[in-house]
Automatic annotation (TrEMBL):
<feature type="active site" description="Proton donor/acceptor">
    <location>
        <position position="218"/>
    </location>
</feature>
<feature type="region of interest" description="Disordered">
    <location>
        <begin position="1"/>
        <end position="27"/>
    </location>
</feature>
<protein>
    <submittedName>
        <fullName>Sortase, SrtB family</fullName>
    </submittedName>
</protein>
<dbReference type="InterPro" id="IPR009835">
    <property type="entry name" value="SrtB"/>
</dbReference>
<feature type="active site" description="Acyl-thioester intermediate">
    <location>
        <position position="317"/>
    </location>
</feature>
<dbReference type="InterPro" id="IPR023365">
    <property type="entry name" value="Sortase_dom-sf"/>
</dbReference>
<dbReference type="InterPro" id="IPR005754">
    <property type="entry name" value="Sortase"/>
</dbReference>
<feature type="compositionally biased region" description="Basic residues">
    <location>
        <begin position="17"/>
        <end position="27"/>
    </location>
</feature>
<keyword id="KW-0378">Hydrolase</keyword>
<dbReference type="GO" id="GO:0016787">
    <property type="term" value="F:hydrolase activity"/>
</dbReference>
<dbReference type="Pfam" id="PF04203">
    <property type="entry name" value="Sortase"/>
</dbReference>
Amino acid sequence: MSPNHAPRRNTSEFRPRGRRRVSRKRRTRIPPKAIFRMSVLFAVVIVCGLGVTKLLAKLTQQPVVVQAAPSTTESSEAAVVAQTVSLSATDVMPCYSEDALVINYLGVSKGVSTHPLLEELHKTVPTVSASTAPVSMGGSGFSNINYWKTVNSDTKGWLKIPGTNINYPVVQGPYTNYYTEKGMDKNYSKQGVIWADSSCSMNGGSSTLSPNTVIYGHNWTNYGEVPRIGSPSDTHFAQLTAFQHLSFAKSHPYLWFSTGSEEMAWQIFAAFYTDIDFNYISSAGGQWIIDGAKARSEHIYDVPVSSGDKIITLSTCTRRFGPSNRQRFVVMAKLVSNPSSSVAITANPNPIRPNL
């Protein structure tokens, strides 16, 4: 007989007697109704958890004051009523670009200034409104420069903008992004400092300045579609966006930026929103930058400016036109010897908008 046709062995005769075959356990089947109930319960737990999280977030948020949208006329703008809103962490968007104004932050910074004297500077600055903003230039901050050089040898000057709490030393690092997330002590700080582009010349008086002195600062709290005019919670360049409002611009046509060698006043000629494709941060300056700034300006300043003038550029982040990180708010001014003359400023009916 072929091996393939061998008879099957009766294995039962080899099975030990008295031992029963152990059967496999049957799998317990969960009824469909029980599965449905468990799914519903799980969903309820998740929803409740999210609700508690949002409630806690609202309770711990710091409210900030913003202004309602102003109209095109100065009279109605002055009558704007302040509204209180809360900014959540997801409302604050990071900036990434060649000028690296703000890098990778998740929420409104709750830290304090990196030096106690900076805190003292801001205690005396009141919140201002469109109708009560002061006109006086006040002090320039020039006398503070030498002290701050002892705190940080990178200190090059002092920036003060009347009507705001922008009243800071200006530092300059070995490369432009050096101070993006550093304080005056050069340690990590989300608030950062006010810092100058590394390509700018700032070691002497006005005659040695670059054609375009470019200065950056963070804006953590006042970046929205309708920026408010001043709040004690604002730091660094957060109040720069107040220049969007015509009445504020009319009341504050000048600013101070001084180096350790010379006290200098500057006359504002443009306040505008732009995308980063407009290379306004070139320290070489040029008439094309001046013309481009005026064409984009929220207001028309009756201030003649030419490529022979020394200009200053103050740049910060904004989200006025949505979540894009390619938009900026910029104020430009030219060096003047007499900061007391009046300036005619009117609304620009058709400014060039950012190409986002």
